[in-house]
Amino acid sequence: MITAAFEYHRPSDLAGALSVLEEHGDDARVIAGGHSLIPMMKLRMAEVPHLIDLQDIAGLKGITIEGGMVTIGAMTTQHELINNEALLSATPIIHEAALQIADPQVRYMGTIGGNVANGDPANDMPGLMQCLNANFTLEGPDGTRSVKAREFYEAAYMTELEDGEILTQITFSAVNAGYAYEKQKRKIGDYATAACGVLITKDGDKVATASIAMTNLSDVPVLSEAAGAALVGTSCDAAAIKAAVAAALEDIDPTEDNRGPVEFKMHVAGIIISRAIARAWSRA
Amino acid sequence: MKDEVTREERVTNLKGLGSSRKRVEDARFTQGKGHYVDDINLPGMLTGDFVRSPYAHARVKSINIDAAMALDGVVAVLTAKDLEPLSLHWMPTLAGDKQMVLADGKVLFQGQEVAFVVAKDRYIAADAVELVEVEYEELPVIVDPFKSLQSDVVLREDLDPNAPGAHGPRKHHNHIFTWEVGDEDGTNAVIDDADVVATEEMYYHRTHPCPLEPCGSVASMDKVNGKLTLYGTFQAPHVVRTVASLLSGIEEHNIRVVSPDIGGGFGNKVGVYPGYVCSIVASIVTGVPVKWVEDRMENLMSTAFARDYWMKGKISATKEGKITGLHCHVTADHGAFDACADPTKFPAGFMSICTGSYDIPIAYLGVDGVYTNKAPGGVSYRCSFRVTEAVYFIERMIEVLAIELNMDAAELRRINFIKKEQFPYDSELGWEYDSGDYHTAWEKALKAVDYEGLRKEQAERVAAFKRGETRTIMGIGLSFFTEIVGAGPVKNCDILGMGMFDSCEIRIHPTGSAIARLGTISQGQGHATTFAQILASEIGIPADSITIEEGDTDTAPYGLGTYGSRSTPVAGAATAMAGRKIRAKAQMIAAYLLEVHDDDVEFDVDRFVIKGAPERFKTMGEIAYAAYNQAIPGLEPGLEAVSYYDPPNMTYPFGAYVCVMDIDVDTGVPKINRFYALDDCGTRINPMVIEGQIHGGLTEALAVALGQEIAYDEMGNCKTATLMDFFLPTAWEVPNFETDFTVTPSPHHPIGAKGVGESPHVGGVPCFSNAVQDAFRPFGNRHTNMPHDHWRIWKTANDLGLHD
């Protein structure tokens, strides 16, 4: 459990990080909190001759909320997300979800950027970002571009992020909606057996909009548009929730692991989704 | 001299038996000042690291070390060929088998040690491990012990299939031993004729002790003086010295073994591992110290596992619920080598305590040990030898019998408990239970939790569930356990021929403080705290003025070490007996100083007083000083004593536990609402340390019952080699524990103490499991196997139709 030797780079600005990336190509990777990459390096499943630590780049940190838009720097830790009061009132689902990630020690180090950029389907933030319809800002040698979270994930650990690019920030509209992030896990620190983020807005006593996204139930995070559509216009009664759950289950493809077989995961996913919808509706 | 201090204050000041004295170890542990094996750094020290097998069963065709040797900083790469001239490529196990130190022609489990790289630092060693090229030819893998006994595949080609093993004849080339206790024909006859018979098969899954600190050693061979110093994570340092001497040929006086601070053992650190042997050989070869410390994955994959017992039971009773007979057969999966840590004559440990706390007139136990392609071991994880398995077995059989009888399981236990007046009680399978008062403990426990009220609440919940008003069901887990600890009488119990006595040596210093050294070694039990308390009460010197030392074989007296809750029953007894020798001499000194006859003075807390004239006395401090500065006729100077204690019997702690649990049938998530633990460990030395022990044991019980396992796939790949998948509970998962006690002293132990460190684990596992199973009993459940993780609980609900 010791990494192979590597060069450690610690640039103080983004340009410096990008130039190291460009120089070493596939041999270089950026590191944020390190809670995914370092274990892979220690297991020697990831070989990274050049490691670029982003923690000295001041511009990558912080949370700003302006004109209803939330912007979060990629190097903002889960701990900082949890303790940001402005974010709590602007988009409380982030707080609820971040509190269910790993444990406090991991959350002091783990960042939102690392969580979304790594492409690990077990991470909680990718599904949540799809639920929020967030945009990821990617900076590379050819400039800056923006990719929707809903279009970012291709397969496990495969994303739209090109070689030479760094995910620098995340933006989304502050959401004044009923919300819930529901997660079943075996213990503190575990990834989800099944997790689901739900945002519901209300028009009178009917569902106006519904956004439902799931974590660790496919090789990518899954936004179920059909599940959301099944709720819109209903009073979110038992029949509507049942229809939404049925639609959501159509969109996922969990695999067996030590948490249990597919049959179990599908069942639990249905329960978790229905509970998340019910709780989000109760807050709408 | 005027005495300002009352007698009561003098007792309090001693901090002796019964005092909740704070643990003296914690000052260093809580400040990060512990000194563990990996903290030992000697000048010129090299580091060793293993090349391990990725396969569970394969022939090793070739090993090429050239690329590794070419790496700058690599000093040596050892393979079995290098160890063979020293006869160290295999080593004896504690169970009478032998185990490869490094792969000798084949590998038998994933993670097996193949080559040992020695380099200037651990980073270079890890790089060099990657450079050793091993060519394997895969062989058929057997992970199921029942299939193993049918298979043509020979796992252990080194053994003559027709020759008997260490414990008698072998039935098959993958069979290790058959061990039988009791009257099988008689038991079967009783069961065949019985009113009611319950049968059940249960698997007690493989798990692992997983101490926070993994295993490691630092060997330092001083070639000039011919002395070998070996630091390591040893629960039995003296036995390690003897084994090291026998294996290496170095005379025992030239070997010093030191167990420094140990970060938990739980049985994992009783045996001898290839890493220890390789670090010794590497130090002998290189002439400089060599350190080996494994990582977490290595610890979980290759060091001694626990449990893995397939148990089949039959229990019979009258219609009224009086048990008439018990039959138990175990198929024991020992992995690739039989490396169980049991006393020599007990290949299945004390599994024959499986009649439990009940007066069962006839019983039989048969155990068949089997080889498979899994890691070796079979240690007693926080329990005396195989006692968790035995207690789980009987406590499940009681529950199943209660179902068969349609009787309340608490009442069934009450009917069958051994009665107070039956002690000392001779069990049908050969144990003499020293003391107990089970009915009193049981009634106290049931009353404390309002058992009747709980059953009423449960019935209401079942009704509500059936009406569709809730999706949560309620389980009430009961367990009553009898432990068998303190191995043991030397006539019955030995480890590699060493009788299982233990020892204490005391020196009283002239100014009235003391040092005591023992043959045991704390791994977190708090010996430095509690053994000082035993002595304080025995010799009248405050516990705060007594240093306890263990773990250095050059200074401590020989002992068999700490496991199986034996420290208090055996070394604690030795401590009391040595203290009494001190006191006997002190009495003579006091009598001399007071100018009276020896028989005219008596011990009183911290002094000797003249009988009938307590105002005339000599304190232990005064007596100690006199021992060194006065010529006392007929007495040698000094005040020292040694005791080697061979216990006349084991001790039998017991307890009554109740767990109240809610289960979400849709997700399989359990929630423990209450856990009540009543323990009777005889005389209580330090109530706070006892409570800490109980919290720790229950936490590990929760782990094992609710998710902790070592699991393999069909290819023999270990699926649970990290703490992501191997369940180690945190404060979040652990409920509040309510502790309680009764006190039934051991009649044969000098202070009546019985040992407690493992009781909560032994009693806790069936209690948590019974809670899960009891929740499903109203819906038709008889038995489901542990670990009760979310999906298995969910599956039980699903199988019972609760999701329809």
CATH class of the largest domain in chain B: Alpha Beta
Count interface residues per chain for the largest interface. A-B, 23 and 31 residues
Helical fraction of chain A equals 25-40%
Whole-number mean pLDDT of chain B: 96
Largest sheet descriptor of chain A: 5 strands, antiparallel
Assembly type of the shown chains? heterodimer
* Count of separate DSSP helical elements of chain B: 20
CATH class of the largest domain in chain A: Alpha Beta
In whole angstroms, how far apart are the ends of chain A? 48 Å
Q: List SSEs of chain A in N-to-C order.
A: EHEHEEEHHHHHHEEEEEEEEEHHH
**Major beta sheet, strand line-up of chain B:** 3-7-1-14-11-12-13
Average pLDDT of chain A, rounded to a whole number, is 97
Keywords for this structure?
heterodimer, A: 284 residues, alpha+beta, Uridine Diphospho-n-acetylenolpyruvylglucosamine Reductase, domain 2, Uridine Diphospho-n-acetylenolpyruvylglucosamine Reductase, domain 3, Enolase-like, domain 1, 3 domains, 35% helix, globular, B: 804 residues, Aldehyde Oxidoreductase, domain 4, Aldehyde Oxidoreductase, domain 3, six-stranded mixed β-sheet
List the helices and strands and how they pair.
The complex is a heterodimer of chains A (284) and B (804).
Chain A: E1 7-9, H1 14-24, E2 28-31, H2 37-42, E3 50-53, E4 63-66, E5 69-73, H3 78-82, H4 85-90, H5 92-98, H6 104-109, H7 112-117, H8 124-132, E6 135-140, E7 143-148, E8 153-155, E9 158-159, E10 166-173, E11 178-184, E12 194-203, E13 206-215, E14 222-223, H9 225-231, H10 238-250, H11 262-283
Parallel strand pairs in A: 1-3, 2-3
Antiparallel strand pairs in A: 4-5, 5-10, 6-7, 6-10, 8-9, 11-12, 12-13, 13-14
Helix pairs in contact in A: 9-10, 10-11
Chain B: H1 7-14, H2 26-29, E1 46-52, E2 58-64, H3 66-70, E3 74-78, H4 80-83, E4 90-92, E5 98-100, E6 106-107, E7 113-119, H5 122-131, E8 133-138, H6 145-148, E9 175-182, H7 184-192, E10 196-207, E11 216-222, E12 227-232, H8 237-248, E13 255-258, H9 274-286, E14 290-293, H10 296-302, E15 305-317, E16 323-335, E17 363-371, E18 377-379, H11 387-405, H12 409-416, E19 425-426, E20 432-433, H13 438-448, H14 451-466, E21 472-482, E22 494-495, E23 498-499, E24 502-508, E25 514-518, H15 527-539, E26 546-550, H16 567-594, E27 601-604, E28 607-610, E29 613-619, H17 620-629, E30 640-645, E31 654-664, E32 669-680, H18 687-706, E33 738-741, H19 759-776, H20 790-799
Parallel strand pairs in B: 1-14, 12-13, 15-18, 16-17, 25-26, 32-33
Antiparallel strand pairs in B: 1-7, 2-6, 2-8, 3-7, 4-5, 9-17, 10-15, 11-12, 11-14, 15-16, 19-20, 21-31, 22-23, 24-25, 24-30, 27-28, 28-29, 31-32
